[in-house]
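[agent] plan:
  1. take the single chain provided in the ticket
  2. run structure prediction with default settings
  3. attach structure tokens to the ticket
  4. add a short note for the reviewer (M.T.)
[agent] executing step 1
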Amino acid sequence: MPDQNKKFGEHKARKRFGQNFLHDKNIIEKIIRSINPKAEQNIIEIGPGQGALTYPLLETLGKLNAVEIDRDLIQILNEQSPAYGELIIHEGDALKHDFNQLTLNISAKNSDSDTSKCRLVGNLPYNISTPIIFHLLEFIDSIEDMHFMLQKEVVQRMAAEPNSKTYGRLSVMLQWYCEVDYLFDIPASAFNPPPKVVSSLVRLTPRKQPLATLNNPVQFSRLVNHVFQQRRKTLRNTLKNYIKEDQIQTLGISPIARPETLSLLDFARLSNAIEAEFI
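[agent] step 2 finished; step 3 output follows
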């Protein structure tokens, strides 16, 4: 096997890419068990970094696609990966990638695959983790599941329930489209350089059936964003230009409620009612 430490030891983590490289073998094994990769699955790793997850995945899958922005890391990964399997690296920013097209291309080239959907894994840069998650929601129909290492605080917000301080836009949008499983925490010492925060592994599984009919997903997203920008105000005040107070009441929602008290279905009812008003 190649001497990983010798090559990657020459590469310094870059702040502009938010790089913190996983190195704890016990944590790596635990993450791989959680992902539970199967041969011939279409798995895409976002940000393979120094290959901590890449090489164990390759040993199981035989072939792995990855999206990486750091050209220096790409060179090292290309040199070392053949010892484990076939690594196909798509150079670029994950925030700009079309994962629908990428999944179609992978499926077309992989005749042994029995699925047109992909599984996503990765240690996402903390500074852009939320934008990446929202970007991936655009391709939700092409995704089977996602396993990501994120800042613990972000995972707590993803999994938060109504009437909690951490419940907000991220909670509503993620939970509308996905089942969110907060798996376990990862200490800072498991990374090099160690981040200043605790990390967590989360599993996001796109819902097979929507929770309810949503007449306009774009309107839904705008509504959720709008009310949580003024989360301390009541619906009566934040929505006065969009829907009347008595209409809110008719939906079974209190006009003096604040957004953090609403359920996912409450947001759907509000969104559909506002959509009807402007048709």
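[agent] step 4 note for reviewer: The mean pLDDT is 91.
[agent] ticket updated
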